Amino acid sequence: xxxxxxxxxxxxxxxxxxxxxxxxxxxxxxxxxxxxxxxxxxxxxxxxxxxxxxxxxxxxxxxxxxxxxxxxxxxxxxxxxxxxxxxxxxxxxxxxxxxxxxxxxxxxxxxxxxxxxxxxxxxxxxxxxxxxxxxxxxxxxxxxxxxxxxxxxxxxxxxxxxxxxxxxxxxxxxxxxxxxxxxxxxxxxxxxxxxxxxxxxxxxxxxxxxxxxx
Length: 214
Fold this sequence. Notes:
Layout: H1 3-14, H2 25-28, H3 42-55, E1 59-63, H4 68-79, E2 83-86, E3 101-104, H5 111-115, E4 119-122, E5 126-128, E6 133-136, E7 153-160, E8 164-165, H6 168-174, E9 182-184, E10 189-191, E11 197-199, E12 206-213
C-alpha cells in the first residue's frame, strides 16, 4: 500500500457515517453575504478606496490622463529608478515622459535580473474599496505575477471609476478564478515575534497607487 492509498483510505473511513442523501457542502452553507456595507456614491467609494490604501501604507495619487505621464516620471525619478519592468501591453503613454530603460516582461528574465530593476509599472484587474486592495490577474497590462513581487517599487494604475468596486463579493464577480490572481493590500510587510514591522520581505517595499480619473 502506497501513501496515496493510505490517505484515500482514511478519507473513506472518515466519510463512512455520512448519509447518502446529505446535501452537498455548496448547498448546505448559506451564501447570503452582504454585497457591500452601506450605500455610497461612486465618488465616496473611490474615496474609501484611497483611505484604505493609505491605511495599509500605500502611497495614493490622483491624476487625469494629461497628468499621468509626468506623475509616473516623477515617481520613478524620486525612487532613483533607471530601469523599470513593463508588461507587454502597458499603455506606452503611461511611461512616455520617463527617461529610463524599459525592461519588458519576458520568461527568460531571472529573479536575480528582476531584483536589479528599481521599479515596475502595471495596471490592475480591479480595486476593492472596503479592503483597500488592488487585484492583478496576469492580463497583458499587468504581466506575470513575479514582476509585481520582485522589484522593490511598484506603481499600480487603477482606472477610476470603472475598475473600482465596493466589496470583495463584487470583485469576485469580475475575476476569473482560473487566472493567477495577486491580491495586494499595501506594500509587502511582516512582523517578528516582538511585532517589529519589516517591509519589503515578500514583495515591494513601496507601493504607489495612481487613481486615474476618466
